[in-house]
Write a structure and sequence with these properties.
Two copies of one chain form a homodimer. By secondary structure, chain A is α/β, with parallel strands linked by helices. The first copy, chain A, is 32% helix and 22% strand. Chain A has twelve helices and 15 strands. In chain A, the strands form two sheets. In chain A, strands 14-13-12-11-7-10-9-8-15 form a nine-stranded mixed β-sheet. In chain A, strands 3-2-1-4-5-6 form a six-stranded parallel β-sheet, sandwiched between helices. In chain A, strand 2 (30-36), helix 2 and strand 3 form a beta-alpha-beta unit. In chain A, helix 4 runs parallel beside helix 5 (102-110), helix 6 runs parallel beside helix 8 and helix 8 (185-195) crosses helix 11 (325-341). The longest helix of chain A has 17 residues, at 325-341. Chain A is globular and about 75 Å long. Chains A and B meet through strand 7, helix 7, strand 8, strand 9 and strand 10 of A and strand 7, helix 7, strand 8, strand 9 and strand 10 of B.
């Protein structure tokens, strides 16, 4: 096999974007062979070159035209379609979140029985050089023990019009949550990728704080690790201009990633050793003020698609194996559950209980979503991922 | 009366520092007339000019030599000595925290029956131009509604030697708490001064995380306000180099005070109005990138002492009336209490219940504090406030 024939299901913001770029041959050895959307107009209008067009996903999956599929549908369908694709023997890449809740993640992952099939997730921010550099510093032990993490990721501002642009948006039934399920899966995935899973979480979610929606649009979560370290994760879609600042306080000093900079105040002596051995009460270890060379944002989505191709054709290791996608979902679920019960929640989360609670929210929801007719540019979301 | 004759009780770090500066006439119309310390050697060695020296506080208070007193003793004595001074008709300035717990604050404040007596607290950071500018922007409505506050104040690094330098340090009986009672009263006071009292708090205190002590040296607190806004306050004495970064997200944009900078990303249109009226889903209001002119740290302790003098002689309004000192104590107590019970605590706090719980901690403490003989510079704390 010297090229991958790819199908895309869902020609919304993401799927449509991939189709446009892949149909122009942007990624070598990855040929766009088919696309699928239930919406015939969208399908007809799609920028997808000579890819064969389907309105029925199963038909495309079984067509024999493709070796691999990207699933870029609304969240709940990731599970159903992902299982189908895996069962049909296709290499599969799912958008984030891999599923809406933990039990669905487990079902999806369980369908990946043939490890020769490549199964990946679109955690494109893992290609960002800043986070890759940070992971390298952590994994190599350069930073020493991490004491505290603080991520303020509040630059996900969304207007009333955004939520009014789709009846499924920001509903329990449509997305299974708010900012934690739609906007933040990237950062939550990076969190667990970089720092591992916490032991417990206490979160405070505010529902419809800034928008007329039935799910959370403002979250503060406090997490504790088995080794005593802790972290705070803050997000909202109600803040402009908002902040994206990740701070890590470790024995070897403090790293801050913000805007285009990655700064490390590096302790010459670890804080632990200094604390024990310093003969005065207030002195701090000397620090080096280091700007880490981590400019640009990396290859992002195209990088993940290239890596998916290389994994299929060359057995390259995956940047984001889909199996790892369960962690960000479990963390998001845990935050919502903690806020619901007003208590600290320990991991692992009871996925079945969470699913039951979520279904009850969907069944008992009396929320009436206001949906506008799109006006002009309002429906143009081609630049959002 | 054209000058104030001042006495100082307690010649430790703070009292000794004031004595040195005031005895040289640094503040006009404020004459150092007497000083007091139980430790005769310290008293003898004090840099206090020709001030009369006392080993007994009550004797000094009753001596007739002074009109006003600064109480710079360990925390618990603020209440007892403050009440005595007020009852004797003296103008009184107490170090922070004004007391260790809310019930003691109430007792102390209740003794201030004669409003012609000036009663102030040493919240010197209220003189910092950055915080004064921020207060001005908030109080004038320039910032609009505040949505979120985040203060990471983790640059209070202290070594093992610091805690070993005094048996009373970081004990329930000696200080009534850890970083919240010793290092952070300034920031907690600024918090309530700038943003008002929250409705509730959920805090997570770690006891002796970085040091061998029986009180908290690591805290994360989540606060909620009646209007839905929220905030996170993070502090520790275990982190080097540590952070001091205050971020305020408001309708009119975001202000960050960090290091020597005070930056405002100012929304031309408020986020609330933009959210409602913008016809696209993702656009944000235009922002102005403003560097606020707020350099330097202000007059700090000398500023508060000058203001105390002007209040006595000229009826100038106080920068930090002692009555306001109860709020930071109540907030600190609420954080410790929330962490103790593992639940959210609402304000106002039950001060008597807190006092009872604190006394029980003191009575049942089996912690044996390790105290070192000072070695060389170890005991020199002249630069710490």
């Amino acid at each position: 096999m010297d090229e991958v024939k790819l199908g895309i299901i869902g020609l919304g913001n993401m799927g449509g974007h991939y189709a446009g770029r892949l149909s122009k041959g942007e990624i070598k050895r990855l040929r766009l062979a088919a696309v699928c959307d239930r919406d015939e107009e969208k399908l007809k209008a799609a920028d997808a070159g000579d890819a064969k067009r389907f309105t029925d996903a199963e038909e495309m999956l079984k067509s024999g035209l493709i070796d691999a599929v990207v699933i870029a549908t609304p969240h709940y369908d990731h599970t159903v379609l992902g299982i189908k694709a895996l069962e049909l023997g296709l290499h599969t890449l799912v958008e984030k979140p891999i599923s809406v809740h933990k039990a669905d993640c487990e079902r999806l992952i369980a369908a990946h029985t043939n490890k020769d099939q490549i199964f990946a997730a679109m955690f494109n921010q893992r290609t960002d050089p800043r986070y890759r550099k940070l992971k390298e510093l952590i994994d190599s032990g350069e930073l020493g023990k991490i004491n505290r993490i603080n991520w303020i990721i509040t630059d996900w501002f969304r207007t009333r019009q955004y939520y009014a642009s789709g009846g499924w948006r920001a509903t329990w039934g449509g997305e299974g949550g708010g900012v934690l399920l739609n906007q933040c899966p990237h950062q939550i995935d990076l969190w667990q990728w970089l720092f591992g899973m916490p032991q417990k979480v206490r979160a405070f979610c505010q529902v419809g704080r800034f928008h007329d929606i039935e799910v959370e649009d403002d979250v503060t979560a406090y997490m504790e690790y088995a080794d005593g370290s802790n972290g705070v994760f803050i997000t909202t879609t109600g803040e402009a201009p908002g902040t994206n600042r990740l701070e890590i306080a470790a024995e070897r000093g403090r790293i801050v990633i913000e805007g285009d900079t990655m700064k490390w105040l590096r302790n010459e002596v670890t804080s632990t050793e200094w604390c024990e051995t310093c003969e005065t009460g207030f002195a701090k270890p000397e620090t080096w003020d280091i700007s880490l060379p981590a400019s640009g944002r990396g290859e992002q989505h195209m990088g993940i698609l290239k890596n998916f191709t290389a994994a299929i054709l060359d057995k390259a290791p995956l940047i984001a194996p889909a199996e790892e996608g369960i962690h960000s979902v479990e963390l998001a679920n845990g935050m919502i559950h903690s806020s619901d019960i007003g208590e600290t929640v320990s991991f692992p989360l009871d996925g079945v209980a969470y699913e039951t609670a979520l279904k009850k929210k969907i069944e008992t929801s009396t929320f009436v979503k206001k949906v506008d007719q799109p006006k002009g540019a309002a429906s143009n979301m081609s630049n959002t991922f």
